[in-house]
Amino acid sequence: MDTVIIGGGASGIACAIRIKQNNPAVNVTVLEHLDEACKKIHATGNGRCNITNANAEGFEVTKDFFESLGLLMRESGEGRMYPYSNQAASVVTVMLDACEKYGVKIVTDCNVRSAEKVGEQFNVFTDKGIFIADRLVLATGGTAQSALGSDGSGYALAKAFGHSVTELSPALVQLKSSSKNCRVMKGVRAKCDVKIEINGSIVAKDFGELLFTEYGISGIVTMNLSEYVSDKRLKSGEERCVAVIDFVPDVSEEELLSHYEKFGNFDGVLPHKLCSVLQRQTEGDGEKTAKYIKNWRLIITGTKGYDYAQITKGGVPENELADGNESALCSGLYIVGELTDNQFKCGGYNLNYAFNSGIKAADKITL
Asked: What tens digit of pLDDT does each residue of 337-347 get?
């Protein structure tokens, strides 16, 4: 049996290795359009590679897989799992070494033009010839960080086999604001409750570190909420977005006001730059400032875009996929990783899904 995998990233390479572990007789070819496989993994986790999370669904599957490759991991708070070396390069090395060990063929600098199914076989047309397979895996990634391989080409391939693709947008990305106050507070960090308000209704909320930047806001809480912000709908005027921030979620407005009446300022509660901005907005009114601290509104004008996003929101819907991420519309076709409509919060959850979905597809292929 021949299997062709389009995409040499996390999900594609994990799938390839697992197939060969399960059945060495299967011929596995990975087609990668960059000059090397696993390029995006090098950049994950600020070069450390947050492989998975101990709280993620399928964590044990991912953990066991990497242990089978000889990779030792350690936890670094909130369930985040990193290679013991703290270097993403270690993850890439063990995966590519495994490909060589098991006989996975990786064809780099290979651009896929189209794919079709004729009878029981798939034909994949590339600038390096036609590849024929009994099973085809689409593992091209989404649209985020195209320089590292995710150019969005996989969506067209999925559609060619009858699949739909939900609305796409950058996710786990910084948010932009038109407010000059963000530039004034550049570098200020605060642990906050943040809500995303769309057209007057709260659509999401989260708690975490917020970082002010010259363009708007960043930090984990921002990244986790960014999937609810649509550049397309904001640009068209269809939606208006506001970040509603509570800078001290565990302190009541009454307690803030009592503090102000005693000390005459909030410098002992919040960073000075933040206090200065809030008090300037309220013209030094302590009661009004206390209200702003608990309910500060920041207009959001969009995201920083796909070049800065960690993942893409949207993709092939789950209801078009069967067990092992096999297509419900085309037998023998598998769609894994970021190409599917699955998004998770920061902390190793998305990379865990990429590895996990590739492994599950491999297990189904080799049943």
From this structure: 999 999 999 99
